[in-house]
Design goal:
Layout (H helix, E strand, L loop, with lengths): L4 H20 L7 H29 L9 H14 L12 H6 L5 H25 L3 H4 L6 H36 L2
């Protein structure tokens, strides 16, 4: 099965849920304004489709997560372990796959979250790489306890901005969808 096929199906469900079901019971539903609003909401969701298309292209090229090397994978694993949570709604740092797989976060928001997390992984990876003395050691993915603590500290500085970015983008997205039916 195509890796992002399920996400494309989720996008269709998101359109049906956000556009149709959330607003179908409102006063005046099924009037001309409702149907125009539905078209506007569907057009607004096109950004999610484009984000999904871009993500599948980047993922196919293995250019995602800062995980194009063992060190990036190790850094991401430490950040996920330290700041991830079972509930995606309260998690501060998730794997890219998890963000794209949960349909409770709009796909366009997911794209921004994933990009921001990739940046945080890249920055932490570069700090670790620069602190290492030998080039052959820099390529290894094994992190010492001190390096893990440094990555967690860097995450502590980056995570609040990531969480606020996600919350702000979700608010903007919800407001834009509601405006379609105002």
């Amino acid at each position: 099965m195509e890796q992002f096929l399920g996400l494309a199906v989720n996008l269709g469900f998101e359109g049906a849920h956000r556009g149709l079901l959330e607003h179908f019971g409102r006063p005046g539903a099924r009037d001309d304004a409702f149907w125009r609003g539905l078209v506007g909401a569907r057009n607004h969701l096109n950004a999610g489709a484009k984000a999904l298309q871009r993500a599948s292209t980047l993922n196919a090229a293995s250019m995602r997560d800062g995980c194009d090397d063992p060190l990036g994978k190790a850094v991401r694993a430490v950040l996920e372990s330290a700041y991830g949570a079972k509930d995606i709604g309260v998690s501060s740092f998730e794997s890219t796959h998890d963000w794209w797989s949960f349909s409770t976060v709009p796909l366009k928001v997911v794209e921004a979250v994933v990009e921001a997390q990739d940046g945080a992984v890249h920055e932490a990876k570069e700090v670790v790489r620069k602190a290492r003395a030998a080039d052959d050691e820099a390529a290894t993915g094994a992190l010492s306890d001190a390096e893990k603590e440094r990555v967690i500290a860097l995450g502590r500085a980056a995570v609040p901005a990531l969480v606020e970015t996600r919350a702000g983008l979700v608010r903007e997205y919800d407001a834009a969808m509601a405006q379609c039916f105002a």
